Amino acid sequence: QLGDFRDGHRKNDGGQMQQTATEVEEKDIPKVADWFSKQTAPWPKQTIEGEFDMARARHIATVGANGAPACLSCHSAVSPELADRPAIVAPRLAGQHDYYIAKQLKDFREKRRGNDTDHMMTAIARDLTDAEIAALAVFLSQNPELHEAKP
């Protein structure tokens, strides 16, 4: 992600990450990634309010929907149900803030973000409704056990 920010393939509100990424030397990126990977952040509090179809969100996250793969098939450590897939190939979603997940999904859907391999997330998010995005964001952010989720 630092490389994408640095190279202009990914942007964020206000340009904070683009600026920060330019200040990290190439040789230090693996050190930064290693340090962040070892941190344990407090679990986020739910901030998106409303009534959500959590059964649908769980299904999308663990099984998939609309011809798209399960979120956790790429964004999670391997669980027995996903054993035929490689370990984390995309950033882990469990524990991210709900508003962040929702914003990223909407940005992919609206093509405001396009740094995903083969535009996979753009295609997946295209078919998600606002209600599904909100439910997924809450579900993914509020379930610490998701790295071992079962359908």
What keyword list fits this structure?
7 helices; mainly alpha; globular; 41% helix; two-stranded antiparallel sheet; 151 residues
Detailed description of the structure:
By secondary structure, the protein is mostly helical. Helix content is 41%, strand content 3%. The chain has 7 helices and 2 strands; from the N terminus they run ααααββααα. The chain has helices at residues 2-7, 16-22, 29-37, 54-62, 98-109, 120-126, 130-141; strands at 64-65, 68-69. Strand 1 and strand 2 form a beta hairpin.
Poorly predicted ranges:
none
Gyration radius from CA atoms, angstroms:
16 Å
Estimate what percentage of residues fall within beta strands.
Answer: under 5%
Class from helix and strand fractions = mainly alpha
Percentage of residues in helical conformation: 40-55%
Distance between the termini: 29 Å
- Count of helix runs: 7
Main sheet summary: 2 strands, antiparallel
Q: Widest sheet: strand order? A: 1-2
Shape: globular
The topology string of helices and strands comes to HHHHEEHHH
- The total count of strands amounts to 2
User: If you average the pLDDT, what whole number results?
Assistant: 84
Write a compact overview of the structure shown.
By secondary structure, the protein is mainly alpha-helical. The chain has helices spanning 2-7, 16-22, 29-37, 54-62, 98-109, 120-126, 130-141, and strands at residues 64-65, 68-69.
